[in-house]
Design a protein that fits this description.
globular, alpha/beta, 9 helices, Rossmann fold, 9 strands, about 35% helix, 2 domains, about 15% strand, five-stranded parallel beta sheet, four-stranded mixed beta sheet, about 220 residues
Length: about 220
């Protein structure tokens, strides 16, 4: 490949495999990358693969597992989902579903199930409090919220789980494309919330995976 150098050994260094951000690439470039990975016999996670891109490449890349909501695709053998209940995603509103689904699909790619608790924003706080006992079962929780993004702070004050805040661009006016949500999570008065960039469900899932990998290392210490 003249234009791209895939990082085939990233998983050995970091525990996370190569992923390809597609929205800024041409269809020809995406095909080139996928063909290279296929020829090497490696799995590949494609993110932000837009529906219009998929509509063009799907005829020649039929072995890809594509999900339109999350705009992700998997190349290679699908891993069986683990029975362990480690991760869950909680969304504040239905408009946060796309970002939340990107996180879920990323975790699925690595062989982890990840149930989603939807529409638990603080505008109807009872919806969140009614599900707290269920959410508490999961050691790592991704809290996905736009607007004022108060839900992750409230959730962090109610459960002992590791909380990863994922701000979204949902909202209008001073929500400012997700900046208000990002600032709210960064300024949270509930200590210990990890925060990723706006609309970065993939990044939130990667933090969750690093948490798990670190826990597994600690459990192996004699």
């Amino acid at each position: 490949m003249d234009n791209f150098i895939l990082d085939y050994y990233r998983a050995r260094r970091t525990g996370l495999e190569e992923a390809v951000f597609c929205s800024e690439k041409t269809v020809a470039e995406i095909k080139e990358i996928v063909d290279s990975a296929r020829n090497k016999g490696i799995r590949l996670l494609l993110t932000r693969l837009l529906p219009e891109q998929w509509n063009v490449i799907s005829e020649s890349q039929g072995d890809l597992d594509y999900d339109e909501t999350s705009q992700t695709a998997f190349l290679g053998e699908t891993r069986e989902l683990s029975a362990l209940e480690v991760f869950c995603v909680v969304t504040a509103g239905s408009s946060d579903r796309k970002v939340a689904q990107e996180a879920v699909r990323t975790l699925n790619y690595y062989g982890h199930q990840c149930p989603m608790f939807c529409d638990l924003g603080v505008a109807g706080l009872w919806r969140l409090t009614e599900r707290i006992d269920e959410i508490t079962k999961y050691p790592i929780v991704l809290a996905v919220a736009g607007m004022d993004a108060a839900m992750p702070t409230v959730l962090s004050g109610l459960v002992p789980s590791a909380i990863i805040g994922v701000p979204t661009s949902s909202g209008y006016g001073v929500a400012d494309g997700g900046r208000a949500a990002l600032n709210s999570m960064l300024a949270s008065c509930s200590p210990g919330i990890a925060v990723v960039n706006i609309d970065n469900g993939f990044g939130g899932a990667c933090i969750a995976l690093r948490f798990l990998n670190s826990l597994e290392k600690v459990s192996n210490i004699p």
